Fold:
Amino acid sequence: MSKWHIAQMNVGTVRFPTDDPRLAGFMDRLDAINALAEASPGFVWRLQSDQGNATDIILTENPLFIVNMSVWEDVESLFAFVYRSAHQGVMAQRREWFERPDEAYQVLWWIAAGTTPTPQQGLERLRHLQGHGPTPYAFTFRQKFPPPDVIAQPEDMQPQPYCVGWS
Structure:
C-alpha cells in the first residue's frame, strides 16, 4: 500500500445560482456522479456538506464560486474517473453551466495516506499553481509529478484527447 494519495480540487463559477432552473442539468446529475466517483476504483474521500455534495460550501465572497475536492489512491484512478467514465459527459456540457475559466481551475497534490485535506489547503495549492505553474507542490494531469519519495521526471498524462467542453 502506498504511503501517498492524490488530492484534487477543481473550482468553477456557475453562471446561475444553484437553485436556478438553468442549472438543473448540472445539479440533477450531482448525486449520480458522486455515487459513480465513490464506486470507482481508487476512490478514497470527497468533500461534502450535509446535503451530500459541496455546492453549498462557501469559500469566497462570490456565492457562484463552487468547489469540488476529492482524494484518490493514485493519479491514474482519478484520471480514469475524470476522463473515461460518465463524468466526461458532464464535462462536455460544462460551458452551459460554468463561466469559462481564465486560469487554472484544477490542481493535484500528494498527501500522506490517511490524511484529509481542507478546502483552504486546496485553494492555497490552486493559487500556487496559478502563480508558479506546475511544481511538485501543485500540479496538473499535463505535468504530473511523482509522490515525494519517488525520484522521477514529471509526466504528461495527455488529458487533451479526453478533455471536452471548453473547445
Remarks:
- The CA atoms of residues 103 and 130 lie 7 Å apart.
- The chain has one domain: 4-132.
- The domain at 4-132 is CATH 3.30.70.100 (Alpha-Beta Plaits).
